[in-house]
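Curious: can you check?
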Amino acid sequence: MNFSRQEKIITSYGFKKPGASFFVFIAPHAAGDDKKTGVIASRLARLLGGFLVVNNRYFKKENKQAAQYPERVEDFNNLCWGRSYNKYLWKKKRPEMKKFFRDIAGYCAEAEKHSQDSRAVAVYIHGAQDVGVGVDIGVGAKRHNTSNKILGSKRHKNVGFNTGEITLKINTLKKIKKDLARELEQGYNLKVTVGESYSGWSKQSAIQFHKHGGRNDYALQFEIGSYLRHRKDKRKYIADLLAQVLLNNFK
């Protein structure tokens, strides 16, 4: 399903677009931190009729634009979780970031109406720099060091102080990984990993917002390697592949 350019809604953080499916695609770092992730998220939304939320204005403090535009420094994948209050502390973040997540929550509420089990699927698109990695999947879990078991924060020995939940059914995660690996490992010799770049098991991670911000959505993040982002044909390829894999595993 394609949405016209006229339906793009300009916001204080970038833009958003309505959808007509249970998918919500999100690009938190499309202002230059994770290059071309906004383009990939937008294509996924077009292909699957998904809702779309893109931050293309605010960037991390490490970004080269930070010195020139300090008023636009904010990491939209680093929420502030108050342990004592057991809630997100939005006053410690820029108002535009609160608006960003409020729009995500609103779109998820609309998206769940299109789902058979009344749960939206929030898909975050990030960029990874790891050489040899095609896609790293984050769902609040990581592969165990000495086995192929995928463990969340309650069982993994390397969890530290993180207490986030697993944000997707493990069986679904394994199928997604298998489908992606079949294409990327055989076709491009690129690895597909789970939580090796970013596990997403910190409550400060955006995918955890869908478990601790008053919602109960499925959520996952795709950290896409630079090889698949820096050329137009590769961006089209990975967006088309992700769309097919998501469609096959969420029905």
